[in-house]
Fold this protein.
Amino acid sequence: MIKWLRMYRLLIAASIRSRMEYRFNFWFSTLMAVIINVVEFLMLAVILLKFGHIKGWTMEECGYLYAVLTLSKAIYRTAASDVHHLEKYLVGGDLDALLLRPIPILLALMSQNFQLKAGELIQGTAILTICMGVMIRQGQMTWTAIPLTMVVIMSGAVLLFAIGLLTATAGFWILRIEELQNITEDAARTAAQYPMSIYPNWLQWLLIGGIPVAFANYLPSLYIVRQQMDWWIIPLSCAVAFLVLGAALAAWRVGISRYQSTGS
Amino acid sequence: MIQVTDLQKQFKTLRKKEGAAGGLRTLLSRDYQVKEAVGGISFAIEPGEFVGYIGPNGAGKSTTIKMLAGILHPTSGTVSICGMSPHRERRRVTRRLGVLFGQRTGLWWDLPVKDSYDILAAMYGQDNRVKETRLAQLSELLALGEFIDTPVRKLSLGQRMRADIAAALLHDPDILFLDEPTIGLDMIAKRSIRNFLKQINCELGKTILLTTHDMDDIEQLCKRVMVINHGKLGFDGSIDRLRSRIGLPTKIRVCYASQVPPCGSLPDTRLQLISQEGRTLTISCNREELSAMEALRLLEQLGIIEDVHMEEPDFEDIVHQIY
Amino acid sequence: MLFLVLARKTYARNLQYRSAHLVHNIASALFGFIYVSIWMGIGENRPLGEYGLTGIVSYVAFNQASLWVAAFLTNGLGMEQSVRTGQIALDLMRPVHLFYHLMCKEWGQIAYQFVYKFLPIYALYFFVLPLHVPSSWQTFFWTAAALSLAAYITICLNYLIGALALWTTESRWLYWVNYAFSMLLSGFLIPIEWLPKTLADISRSSFYPYLHYIPTRIYLGMEDRSALIGAVCWCAAFTFLCLAATGFMRRKVEVQGG
């Protein structure tokens, strides 16, 4: 385990050095990512400024949901960037080169094309700090919420990673996964940015039982922010995250054995 | 060293559904199209051998190599590399193997060549001293010095190929798989790569399996040749036996000054008529039995020759001859 | 006619991926559904101005469908790629003006997306949402005109974004920044009059409202055709900008020697 972590660090370092060969692009893309994220949050903020709340969820509470999810996603995409881009490897046959190395494939894939999601990390932290600050001052939550939130963010990152890996693994069967990712990663995550009580029942259940992003932020926050649930939702969320991760890893192993490379 | 028994690989592809809901139906359907890439081949390679593995495009060469290297899992049959199965013990087998795909680099594209070696050494758990001596040795053999600090993307194709060969040899594997190591190189670069490979085989004693489209590679390097076509081994033996089996089929196109009579019979049985168009005859002969000069002398008996065109044996044709 | 040939080629090329695109529509429809849900949550016990709950639902749903005509075009009209491969030098030398050439191709893309993305999503919303449908054919006509002008503005925008790739090599990010701004300033999710004053002012002085806000309000019968004069002016200005940009590109490519 320690050995693989050291290997991972080494590969990430190499990946960063590669990226720094194109320094301008690196800073340019980071800046652009910040702008995109700010604008995205602004849309939600504008609505809440105008109307006060959505189904009883205030600005701070919505901001909390949004920030927790943004941070989880940023961690997942930073730590495992090219898992999301497996399609490129499958279609182009680039997985061959990774399979020739004496390290686990997933580790090799996770360390390729490392991207520090600095924009998301900064923005997520800022919004989270502001929202939690307000809520602690208003007595809506106590200081214990801080370590709990960190646990939730990490468990959310694991969950998003697991969902991403599971979707990517489908690529071993269906090759083209972009459309699928659009549903399981993009649409599902966008849905989880908002308080789920606004959705009709079928969609709520889909986000709990089908693509369980609800466990990444909404359900835990029902305990941390709104005290509508008991403490057990936190360990349950972590358990769900690791359960999905286990399933994803098992599927991944089967998928790898089905890898077809490209003809030639 | 390498033992392959009844190796088989079938590719299943989903049949695409057309029409409005095609995408969804393709996702759900179980309607496979099965294509056999490798259909039950067996062979064994002993330590120190230099084996050429040839065949036309799509014959199953790369698929075989990929199964030997643990990239693809065979549908049936077994592969054993130094007594281990490459798909069950992939990571252990990669330590005994050096693999080079000529069309792709295994190096880090944007980093200096040296950095790639550092990373690879770390992956194989080589300590620094071992790595440096090894690198010095390879650097001398492959003349890496001139470009070791250059990013891979800036290397010429010949340099990149040398750098990749060194990468494949860095962890001191016993076996080398080379998939088209001379592809796209000019004559000089090809010659130098061949020299390196010869040394690697003779002096370092590595077992090498080489696939190529270049007959010169085979003739100059390999003592043993295996030919694959349509997923089956058509020939496995020494280069001399291969030559005697197919000879050197050559096509000669002769254009005569005046109309030649339609000739059902050529002046010699060693010449075969392929086609006749006006004043032009296309003839095939085997240069093992009949030298080019001799063939022309025979053909001159039919009339005054104005123009001659000779075609060297085509690789695809040679392989077809084996069947 | 060159226009038709190029447009038809792009349309036909897309047809091959039709089935994948239809799967993609599920995701797109889902996104729209999320936005509709937000407004339903807000409008539960509040009046929503001149729109009302059904009005705002129709507003957001129609915007989501029209994304495929007025916003989601080929990133930089594919120029980023042709810069990377060097194809751009060849394209600039063709007897047809680069802008005209790429624009024709993109109209084929838009036609395809109208048939295989806009219409399916629109039809879905028609059945599952209380979607407002205009009663007069004139409204349909002016909505189509407004969407066409919106599409033209977006083509020009993407042309300019793509042209920048000649200097920055990567234009993907600009595409997304433009998209993000357009989400906020075009009234895609929030009608412009409900934006905070500064944002509303910025929006009104830009071309963004003509991408979503104006077409959709025409569709809902809240605006008449005179609103399109502004769109036509912006189209003219953008055409001029694109032609000027091509001049700069020519010079840049000549300096680089192709």
Observations:
- The radius of gyration of chain A is 19 Å.
- Residues 80 and 88 of chain A are 15 Å apart (CA to CA).
- Chain A touches chain C through 36 residues (CB under 8 Å).
- Residues 145-174 of chain A form the longest helix (30 residues).
